[in-house]
Amino acid sequence: MKSAILSALVAAVALGAGFGGEASASERDRKFFQQVKGEWVGPGEIVAGKYKGTKFTCTFTGSTPSEQIGMTLDGSCRVGLFTQHMSASVERRGNGYRGTFMDGADGKGLDVVSGNVNGSKVVFSLNRASLKGAMIAKLASENNMTVTVSVRVAKQLVPVIGMNLKRVDGSSVGSVAQK
């Protein structure tokens, strides 16, 4: 469960669905994904549940497909001495987005089932059997991104993971952060 929730972090940046007109929504979505391309690192913490207080650090590389709207994130998260490979892939399909973390809900991962890009923020839904959740990724600036993962308990979304990522490459038009 812990690795499934940590795996969910990867997807936070990888999803959205259009709103408004089709062409303008597609361009807004594409712009968001382009801003997330590059190298990201940062700390996080599990803030609720059995593993509350567990701190971790992740490193991700974001890329975008040349033909489709979407992105792939690949990297790892480290908790103490243990490192877990993380990957997510999301692409626009019809009016929405579909994708997977790791090997999807059929394996040990999660399915990305819907989402919405709104300016510098993406909100999306995650599913795995009876586990339902949401992720919000917000670009606070060109080089800083916050990620919150929540799970549905009864009829409320309860935050369980918080993460702060910093860009560590030259992909942004802004300054370069130091590793």
What does this structure look like?
By secondary structure, the chain is mainly β. The protein has a single domain, classed as Beta Barrel (Lipocalin), CATH 2.40.128. Helix content is 14%, strand content 53%. It has two helices and ten strands; from the N terminus they run H-H-E-E-E-E-E-E-E-E-E-E. It has helices at residues 2-11, 22-36, and strands at 38-46, 55-63, 70-79, 82-93, 96-101, 111-118, 121-128, 131-141, 144-153, 156-167. Strands 1-2-3-4-5-6-7-8-9-10 form a ten-stranded antiparallel barrel. Strand 7 and strand 8 (131-141) form a beta hairpin.
- Helix-strand sequence: HHEEEEEEEEEE
What's the CATH superfamily, by name? Calycin beta-barrel core domain
Number of domains: 1
| Biggest sheet, spatial arrangement of strands | 1-2-3-4-5-6-7-8-9-10
Q: Quick check: average pLDDT?
A: 81
- Beta-strand portion reads over 45%
Per CATH, which architecture?
A: Beta Barrel
- What is the number of E strands? 10
The radius of gyration over CA amounts to: 15 Å
User: Helix proportion of residues, in percent?
Assistant: 10-25%
Distance from first to last alpha carbon: 29 Å
User: What name does CATH use for the topology?
Assistant: Lipocalin
* Biggest sheet character: 10 strands, antiparallel, barrel
Query: What's the CATH class, please?
Result: Mainly Beta
* Low-pLDDT stretches: 4-22, 173-178
Structural class: mainly beta
Number of helices: 2
